[in-house]
Amino acid sequence: MTRILFVTGTDTGVGKTVVTAAFAATARGSVAVLKPAQTGVTADEPGDLQEVQRLTGVADLHEGVRLLEPLAPTTAGRRQGVVLPSVDDHARTIEKLAVDRDLVLVEGAGGLLVGLDDDGNDLADLAARLEIPFAFVVVARAGLGTLNHTGLTVEALRARGLPIAGLVIGSWPAEPELAERCNLEDLPATTGVPVIGRIPAGAGALEREAFVAAAASWFE
Ligand SMILES: Nc1ncnc2c1ncn2[C@@H]1O[C@H](COP(=O)(O)OP(=O)(O)OP(=O)(O)O)[C@@H](O)[C@H]1O
Ligand SMILES: [Mg+2]
């Protein structure tokens, strides 16, 4: 059965793209990646999907809409005068991809409650429209503050009845400090969700071969 994984995070810049690439690199079988809304890049600049391709070689990439300014999709769309695809459009795209792929990865924009369409629907609303099973992965920071941010994101997912496969630390330092070591222990206890992976800091700068070879070792 196709697995649909939504990769959300506690914030922008927490490593969702690197985590998405790590899942793509370890997938057995066919994998498609969807970025419903990419902001902050021109038409010829690499976006998150191109970063996933650079790190993994996966080329089955689907970008819903691309917007110039580095802002939330609804804000960038409004300022640019672009009508955004609806979350229903994205849900239909995911269901079509799921027909003949083993894994479909969906990387959100920013955190969970960032609006993706002109009705203000977010990634949680998108997932709730799917008629096939799915799960969320929450990418979190390692350092001080992550217990609260991760707790908030998990609580929002639970309040909407959305399944959570696990937490992934987007960037785990080579020499973790006290707060980071304690957070690793406390995250499952405070959120009730296991930490299923840790991406080493610097992994996003690896060459493709090294990234793909190491990716499996980053997951439990
Ligand atoms: N494990 C890592 N190794 C190296 N660089 C990392 C790692 N995690 C994150 N980064 C870097 O941190 C920055 C933010 O990460 P990333 O772009 O993956 O965040 P994001 O959660 O996908 O943000 P967005 O909301 O823009 O999609 C990037 O420049 C990325 O290369
Ligand atoms: Mg990203």
Automatic annotation (TrEMBL):
Mg(2+) binds at T17, D48, E107. Keywords: ATP-binding, Biotin biosynthesis, Cytoplasm, Ligase, Magnesium, Metal-binding, Nucleotide-binding. It is found in: Cytoplasm. CDD domains: DTBS. Its main location: cytoplasm. Its EC number is 6.3.3.3. It catalyses: (7R,8S)-7,8-diammoniononanoate + CO2 + ATP = (4R,5S)-dethiobiotin + ADP + phosphate + 3 H(+). ATP binds at residues 13-18, 48, 107-110, 170-171, 200-202, 207. Its cofactor is Mg(2+). The active site is at K35. Pathway: Cofactor biosynthesis; biotin biosynthesis; biotin from 7,8-diaminononanoate: step 1/2. Belongs to the dethiobiotin synthetase family. This is ATP-dependent dethiobiotin synthetase BioD. It comes from Kribbella ginsengisoli. The gene is bioD.
